[in-house]
Amino acid sequence: MSLLAARTSQLRARGHHESNRVTFVELFFDLVFVFAVTQLSHGLLAHLSLIGLAQMSVLLIAVWWSWINAAWVTNWLDPARPAVRMMLFALMLAGLVFAAAIPRAFEDRAGALALAYVSMHVVRDVMMLWSLNRHDAINFRNFVRISIWHLAVAPIWLIGGHADPALRLELWVLAAAVETVAPILGYWLPWLGRSTTAEWAVAGSHMAERCGLFIIIALGESILITGATFATLTWTGEHIVAFLTAFVGSVALWAVYFNIGAERASRQIETSSDPGRLARSGYTFMHLPIVAGIIVVAVGDELVLHHPGGHVELAALAALVGGPALYLVGNALFKRLSAPNLPLSHLIGLGLLVLAIPVSLFLTPLTLSATTTTILIVVAVWEWMSLRQRVES
Predict the structure, then answer these.
(1) Is 213's pLDDT higher than 70?
(2) pLDDT at residue 392 above 60?
(3) Domain contains 216
(4) How far is residue 323's CA from residue 252's CA, in Å, rounded to a whole number?
(5) Which of 182, 199, 216 is the last residue of a domain?
(6) Are residues 257 and 280 in the same domain?
(7) Structural domain count of the chain
(8) Phi, psi at residue 272, to the nearest 5°?
């Protein structure tokens, strides 16, 4: 083994379907992010304010980049290789520290969180440079650019970890913004130029399956919170109805994503002449509001389970309407990549959610939850029926 380059290729074999499958070690790696998503929803529930929303949003972006960057890496590298597995285990450990620090990320564990996050970047980038050197010159240059961008933003995360909490939020927002803009700019650098999506050789079916599984993780976290909360309550009629409404809402979220969009996008990226562009747009960026929507919906479900009656407070309104709206926006943009127009069902759903805001003045939290769940069901059924009619015609 060379210190600067792998003697044997660590890359995935290409050319047959089996080589693109998601492996068990990747699923094992994802368990850390079940915990991370749970921490985010609990953190948002504990800090239902604009500041709390901003804090959890920047941490969600960091969690997402931690996961999606690893998904890109294992799209190229073969998880069956011992070195790649060791990398994933190292990322799991750092990710576990990051997730454990989330509830006190703006208190006494900010430094640990920042160090864990930067460590994940360093481990991934070093592994990619070592693996690609001698074996994939084009992607090696891409990761030289990526590594330099990550090294440039790392001090912002680390300094933020030891700054005053108010300044910390500003620094981390800046760092998250830089990391989000970087791939859009192709990780441009002087003299090195920029990466183009045509250079990113992507196994489309693998990327689609990985992101679909992350949606399952987020939905599973929502169901976990619903079940755990319901278990602690007295099972009155209102609580039972709130529990059933939350469950049906999770099913509706699943149907909106998996009924049509996931499979259609998977087919398109697999046959695309530029799968890197679709992977960057559809999976790297447009899945973030989908995941954010699921987390906010979970917060709304827990609020309703605890307080199904009375007036709808502003925080509950924001969660019960904002969560489904985020989810539909993300899905609409994602599905637009494999369709000529934004799906009409999603646009109508967003319109109905807007109308639910003034109506909420006359509703209880439980009835508002039932209303937004009904809207999601209408969107899912509408889309399914419209597709079936096109197929039959």
Answers:
(1) yes
(2) no
(3) yes
(4) 13
(5) 199
(6) yes
(7) 2
(8) -70, 150
